Every structure is written in structure tokens, then in C-alpha cells.
Predict the 3D structure of the following.
Amino acid sequence: MAETLRAVLNELATIAPDWVRRIALPDWYKRYGQRIEDNRLPEATEKREAYAQIVGADGYYLLDCLEQSDMAVDWQSLPTVMALKATWNCYYERKVDPQSGEQSVRWKTKQELKRAGERIESPYDLEARYRSRVDTAWTGYMVHLSETYDDDECHLITHVVTTPATIHEIDCTEAIHQALINKELAPQEHFVDSAYVDAQLLVSSPKQEITLVGPTRANCSWQSKNNDAFDLSQFQVDWQHQQAICPQGKRSTSWVESVDHTGSPYIKVRFHPQDCTNCPVRSQCTKVKPGGMRSLKLMPQAEHEALTTARADQTTEEWQQRYKRRAGIEGTISQSVRAFGLRQTRYRGLAKTHLQNLAIAAAMNIDRLVNWLNGVPRAKTRISRFAALAEA
Ligand code: SF4
């Protein structure tokens, strides 16, 4: 917050220094004169929150001064002012007492904040977004690389997509396919990691004449983590009669079609409470109290069947051997990060960051073509001497 306010003051001080001198409070020169570093801020929670309140009040005061100013410049469209407004709107609430006219500023709780995809993270780059994945967190963008993988040919990067960090991989797969089709570079098989695969894509990709090959995400139910329990795969589905059949041979008694919060259709299936209450293997099936029943959430038929088939396929040796082809892109990502600096953007904004990523991909392709023309073999995945003993 404080760095956002400092960024606005610096920008205004450049274009309207006399105006800033008139409205700036004396404390501001100390508070916002230097870059705001986390290690210089108060450590105790109470003091930190008090500091946040002061910064909040300063921000509203500055916005009020701007509203009342007769500045000739179009301050409304300054990126730092836009960041200030959006950030204050996200993190603070201002209340005005109708009787006294007294204002109070409240620092919102975590639960009240907007989702990460809607929050501005930096006054210096309004498009950068915050994301954490496993043990990595960053503010910025995501880049998705596609490359050819023919055994005897030079492996070339065929497509680059750059998105704000909060856009999930799954939302890029179809667009990547379409872009490759438009370039007449669509693969027959597209090898991807699990983040790019879901049941809808397993159904839609063949319509684009592309077979999506990647591990599907695991079923997270407690039943699927227990070998003796009955997960979804142990139930048969009679699509014609709109019923599921449980491992005890009981047929479901309720079948309700609905849509979830993302707009994706699903089917809620329930068994009869009496069947489940009297069931001798109930503890392997459900944890609901006696009188309750097992319920299932099914995807529409095409997606359910595509996912079931994919989950069965990926356990076979043949599929695992085939999927080893994907390892090549890990080498590409490693090369792009270590040799070409892909991990850090040198620019602000999505468009320039994408341009940097395109330039890196072009440079990598030139590097690969030169090596290929000179007969330099592709680097092999390194295996430690100890691991090599196991392979032999
Ligand atoms: S608990 Fe209900 S759904 Fe589960 S196996 Fe028993 S009868 Fe079938």
C-alpha cells in the first residue's frame, strides 16, 4: 500500500511538483521519501496495522485532493493513480459519520479481499498477478511453450503463450491447440503435464483432431486413497436408465442434473438411505451417519467415459513409455530459464513480457537449428552415476 502511494507521489511530483508541495503533509517526506522495504516496517501486528491505517488515510486524503484539484493534466488516467484507486478499493473501507462528518478508515480482513486474479499487486505493473504453486510463489506472468518432438528432426518451439500468473494452465490448452491449428502446426498428439488436462479437454481435443496425452489429476476422495474403500471407479453407470449401480448391486434412486459454480454441468446421484443403512460394507463406502446415504457426483457421460478411459490407460506400461516423450519440454524449460533468462521479465506489462518470451523462443530455435545443421547431438537428460547403475 505504502509503495503504491509513494509511486503516485513520485509520478505527480514529476508532472505537477508545485501542486504536490502544496498538498503534501509534512510527515509524508519521511514516510514516503524512500522506497518502502518490508524490513523497515513495524514488526508487531498492532503497530503494523496502525501503520496500515495511517497509509490508508493518507491515500484517501491524496485522492480527495486530486478530486478537488484543477490540475491541467489528466491525472485520472495515470497508471499509478489507477493502481491507488483499485488497491485502496480492494484493501480499505472508508466510512463517513453522517452527523459529524468524521471519517474512519478500516483495513479489510483477509476474508473480505478480492480473489488474487482481481487484485493489483504492484503500482509499477498493473497486469502482474500473484500466484503460489507448491512451494513457489511469484508476482507476474506464466509462459507456456509448445515444441515439436519428432525423433530424427530438430526440436523447435512452435508456440508461446504468456498470461497473467493467475490464469490456470487448463484454461490455455484449447487456445494453444487452436493457435497451432491456425499456424498449420497442430500435432497429432499433444503431450502435456496434468495441469493441462481435464475431462472436458479429453472430449473436445479430438474434435480439433488432436489427441491430448497427459496424466489426469487424481481423484481426491477419501475412498480413492484407501484400497478397501469404494471410490467412483467401483460404481457402474447405467446412462440409459439414469442410474448408478454400487458394488453391492444396489441401484441409485435419485439422479439430478445441475451446474457447479464454474458453469460446468454435473449429475448428483443418491442411493436409497435404507439400502445404505442396512449395508454390510457401509464403512467401506460412506461416512455419513446412519439414515444417510452414499451420493456420487458424476460428469456428463462423454466426459465421465473419457476420464475413466484415460485413468485406466495411464496405468499401463505402454502409455507410460509413450508419455516419456514429454520429458523433452522439461529440458526446453530448463534451457530457457538457465541459458536465456526466461524466469525474469525485464519489462513491465503483459505485452512486453510476451515479446521478451517470443524473442527468447526465437533465439532458442536459432541455437537449435545451428546445432542441428552442424550435427551437434541433442543433450541427453543427465542421470547420476548411481542412478545409472539401476538402469543397467
Ligand atoms: S453403502 Fe449404499 S451405495 Fe455403498 S455399497 Fe452399501 S448399499 Fe451400495
In short: The mean pLDDT is 92. The two ends are 58 Å apart (CA to CA). The pocket of iron/sulfur cluster is lined by residues 230, 246-248, 250, 271, 275-276, 279, 281-282, 285-286, 294 (CB under 6 Å).
